[in-house]
Amino acid sequence: MSLKTIGYPLNSWLLIAVSLLTLFTPLANAAAPIQHWVTPSGTPVYFAETKGLPIVDVRVDFNAGSAQDPVGQSGLAALTHTLLDLGAGSDDEASIARKFADLGAQLGGSVEMDRASISLRSLSASDKLPPAMALLRQILSAPHFDAKVLERERQRSMAELKDALTRPEVQANRAFWLTVYGDHPYGRQMDEASLTALTRDEVVTFFRQHYTRNNAVITLVGDLDRAHAEKLTGKLSEVLAPADLASVASIPEVSIAAGKTVQIEHSASQAHILLGLPTIPRGHADFFPLLVGNYTLGGGGFVSRLMQEVREKRGFAYSVYSYVAPMRQAGPFQIGLQTKRDQAADALKLTRSVLESFVAEGPSDKELAAAKANLVGGFPLRLDSNKKLLENVAVIGYYGLPLDWLDTYQAKISKVSRDEIRQAFKRHIRGENLNTVIVGGGE
Amino acid sequence: MKKPILIFVALICAMLGLVRSTLAESQFSDLAIYSQTLPNGMRLLVKEDHRSPTVAHMVWYNVGSMDEVDGHSGLAHALEHMMFKGTPKLGPGQFSKQVAAAGGRDNAFTSLDYTAYFQQIPKEKLGEMMALEADRMRHLTVDPKEFAQEIKVVMEERRMRTDDNPQATLFEQLNAVAFQAHPYRRPIIGWMNDLEAMTAADAKRWYQDWYIPNNATLVVVGDVNPAEVFKLAQKTYGALKPRVLPERRQQHEPEQRGVRRLEVSAPAELPVLVMAYKAPSLRKPAEETTPYVLKMLAAILNGHEAARLNQQLVREQGLAVSTGADYDMTSRGPALFYLYGSPSQGKTVEALEAALREQIKQIQESGVTEEELKRAKAQLLASEIFKLDSVFGQAMEIGMLESAGLSWRDQPTLLAGLQAVTADAIQAQAKALFSDASLTVGVLCPTSAAKPPARRPSSPVRH
After folding, report:
1. Which ranges in A103-220 belong to alpha helices (H)?
2. How far apart are alpha carbons A336 and A208 in whole angstroms?
3. φ, ψ dihedrals at B458, nearest 5°
4. Three-state DSSP class for A29?
5. Would you tell me which residues 50-109 of chain B have a C-beta closer than 8 angstroms to some C-beta of chain A?
6. ipTM score here?
7. What residues contact B11, with CB distance under 8 A and at least 6 apart?
8. CA angle, B24 as apex, B20 and B30 as ends, to 5°?
9. Which distant-in-sequence residues (6+ apart) come within 8 Å of A180 by Cβ?
10. Is position B80 annotated as part of the catalytic site?
11. Taking a C-beta distance cutoff of 8 angstroms, is the pair A98, A82 a contact?
């Protein structure tokens, strides 16, 4: 919690951008080919065996992200996910936490718009992994959703939400998704009213409908063989309820509207600026041209045009970035920066002009070569830990990308031409659809 | 060249009681740390990890913000930014371009104790990176125009990190109150006023004083052959001449005599309470026990969701929205043992402080259970194995130990020290450490001006 170290360009915004980029560019280790099967109970499994460390990582992704929140019930997916390990089967919340700790196992999870994830990291030893997996099965099949615990977690979420809403970066981010996605499920967000209204019955129903064996994908990476992996995932799948997929909403296509500018007052010393619009879903043919092009525009860290113009030449911002994040449906393109409030207008103008000229002209030959050199050459860095491999394999599995995605990744990057980038940017990053959110600053 | 890491892993495994076959020698025989010192005094530490064809290359300078003097706060960090601004061989920004062209990622960070630079790269690019890093160890250009531009970026960084972040502001102020003489009282990023006054000449002097091979440690972890790394290091870093380092005056913090309290008013909704007790940091790993005891105490208070603080204050008493404890035993200067939290709605900061004090009192009077201690140790051992998953994380750990005045050789000693902690020792240290005489209490007081604007942003004002 103490501010002991400060990094040069790393900050929360850049970290967000980097993590989205990681999702954006799934890869797998050639040395650890992905194996795929479906459990007897019907859950797809993606598995990569790695040697060298006595660790096993398991991750279960459910189609139970916040885009599944019914209208007026924003926060339901998140609350349901929070409550999973707070009492299940024969154990109360304290007992579950103590049992995981006794095994040295680490339980994690996250709720994105498209998916709700639960992950478990355990030692592979025979006295550690089986009991840790048993606990995982317990919380995914028999959570209590105790009324008192639910109320407490609602109050905590409320307090954290209210505090978060005072922060300029949070306001900017919420306004961005709302402005870009409007009434689409990607635009919905938990607020005080929706959180207050959630009931235990709604949580129980959401769980029954979404945490099922056919609404899940299991990813497994680490120190175990195929037979062992089949046994573990089979048992896990078996305890999940059978699916009633009719009750799982499919996420509608995104319609792209005319761009808007939203300005929100804030007293912060910096203005937070976000620009963007919906672009492509996962698996889209323009993925690689956008990826390679975005490297030059604002994805390539210090060497990107945005960083060069906004930070290096003008000193306008500490962090400035762009990313494209494909989702189940069209995910956003976003540019973000923050700058001293009285220079917000100048910084925004400069940012827009960098974007406009890039969309018009694309990268130069030299820039394209540099982008490819980094993306192709740096490929192994995306996979050099079990944790990174797990995340990438999970994306491939969840979004149904081809199993040879990794093997062909570098070749696909290498093939991208300047013209393809120009066309892809012109198709997807249209000026008339671009939204702008400015929090703080002022005219 | 030794292989103590084998002993280290064996030690963990013995403690874990893992089945021998899962940890066959062949799996770990390639995990070893090798060390050498170049004739110019630069230390080299190399650890093999052959799971992927990547390498983490780091240079750690034994200089951080604690080596600054008043009026020059933020200088170590500002120079870190300038290190990307070129040499006679390489224009501004070219360093990062070369790293990117090699398929790598580069970055740097400054702490109270050290300044470190790194590249994560495909293994075949290591030699190139070492040549680049050696070039800027000696030949940095500190151009006044570039400096004038870059210091603006640093000011933006300060606004983002601290000025507009109420919790970070609280910690900045807390350090300034907890420490009165020791340089830990100054923020790493620097006071805004010092940043405004800073010149290129200041940065240049800092560079000349501290950026020399005999004040640097190379850490390389990854898919490498140590002998080849040493050869490359001799060719690149080995060519640089050593110099005499400036005198470092010891600045001891005088004994605190009574509670210090401070408040920070800032736009927020949740109050934050931080209680910081002065605590020792680890100096002699084989002889001391107190830091290990405090580390295990922090784990028992805060090591998992059902650990004491969360279980009792958040879950059972409903007093806090969140709470925790933190203690870092490895640092050049003195340490703080933190207790912190945010009260639930309708509860006060005072009630939370009383509850945290009650938690400490319970340990002082009744100690901790064997079960709690055993659990904390199990978590510690597993996390030692989990840490080996990250190539970069392994390099970080080695560098941080060295920067704290300890040695990579101490890793097994630290682990053994932690495992040897007893419940009685925790009770005794709880009695010794938690005294009002060495306590600083900081409170973030939300200002009413913090009220967020209407939730729905205003309608479009411009197209």
Report:
1. 129-141, 147-164, 168-181, 192-197, 200-210
2. 38
3. -60, 160
4. coil
5. 50-54, 77, 80-81, 84, 92-93, 96-97, 100-109
6. 0.91
7. B412, B415, B416
8. 145
9. A186, A187, A276, A277, A278, A332, A435
10. yes
11. no
Interface touch B458/A168, C-beta < 8 Å: no
pLDDT of residue B449: 53
Q: Give every residue of chain A whose pLDDT is below 70, as ranges.
A: 1-32, 442-443
User: What angle in degrees, to the nearest 10, is found between the helix axes of B290-302 and B423-433?
Assistant: 100
Select from A345, A4, A268, A316 the least CA-distant residue to B154.
A316
For an interface test with A, give the residue of B31, B52, B66, B77 to mutate (most A CBs within 10 A): B52
* Rounded distance between C-alpha atoms, residue A192 and residue A70, angstroms: 16
Q: Give SS3 for B130.
A: helix
pLDDT at B149 over 60: yes
A187-214 per-position pLDDT tens digit: 999 999 999 999 999 999 999 999 999 9
**Structure tokens, B271:** 């109050």
Pairwise CB contact (< 8 Å): B160 & A267: no
Q: What is the rounded distance in angstroms from the CA atom of residue B337 to the CA atom of residue B277?
A: 5
Tokens of A40: 């007897």
Beta partners for A118? A60, A109
Taking an 8 Å cut-off on Cβ atoms, the answer to whether B100 and A124 are in contact is no
Q: Which stretch of DSSP H or E encloses residue B217?
A: strand B216-222
Q: Please, which residues bridge with residue A35 across strands?
A: A47
Residue type, B311: Q
Shortest Cα distance, chain B CAs vs residue A370, angstroms: 6
At B342, phi and psi to the nearest 5? -125, 130
pLDDT digits (tens, 9 = 90+) for B343-401: 999 999 999 999 999 999 999 999 999 999 999 999 999 999 999 999 999 999 999 99
| Burial of residue A393 (number of CB atoms within 10 Å: 0-12, 13-18, 19+) | buried
Distance in Å from the first CA to the final CA of chain A: 36
The answer to whether A256 faces chain B, any CB pair under 8 Å, is no
Residue B37's DSSP bridge partners are B43
